[in-house]
Amino acid sequence: MKRLLPSIPLSVAVLVLWLLLVADFSPGQIAIGAILGLLLPWLAGMLEPERANFGRTIAILQLTRRVLWDMLLSNIEVARRILGPERALTPGFVWVPLELTNIHGITALASIITLTPGTVSAELAGDRRHLLVHCFNLKDPGAQVAEIKARYETLLKEIFP
């Protein structure tokens, strides 16, 4: 069974992320998400021998709640900025130093950043110690880095020890 379904939490995460990305909860999309949830962890297991080990499971719920709330607020902020004067926008890139060492945690962080409107993960350094993030409105790079680390990386370190 472990060979067929290497990681149930990862399969569930793929299904949920698929449904969030397509924003359609029809039976067809649920079926596609379920198929992806079965296939992607299995294929990833063949490519990357490092397995996802989960730490505090309550942190998963805390992180999920935090990300959903941040997505809502970011959507409002991005809409407000787009409708405002263009000169008020200050896009830019910032390197986020990572304390996360687990590739699954780093991948989750990059995905969360990309799912949150106004930010996009652009590049992971070859040594996996820095993540390049593009911000739609970057006023204070230090504050942006501190916010990413405090809001997401701390919980991800608990989830992926």
TrEMBL record:
Keyword presence, Zinc: no
Keywords associated with the record: Cell membrane, Membrane, Transmembrane, Transmembrane helix
Record-level GO cellular component terms: plasma membrane
Predominant cellular place of this UniProt entry's protein: membrane
Keyword Magnesium part of the UniProt annotation: no
UniProt xrefs under InterPro entries: Cation_antiport_E
GO MF terms, alphabetically ordered: monoatomic cation transmembrane transporter activity
Compartments, as annotated in UniProt: Cell membrane
Membrane topology classification: Multi-pass membrane protein
Family: Belongs to the CPA3 antiporters (TC 2.A.63) subunit E family.
Protein name in UniProt: Na+/H+ antiporter subunit E
Source species taxonomy: Bacteria, Pseudomonadati, Pseudomonadota, Gammaproteobacteria, Lysobacterales
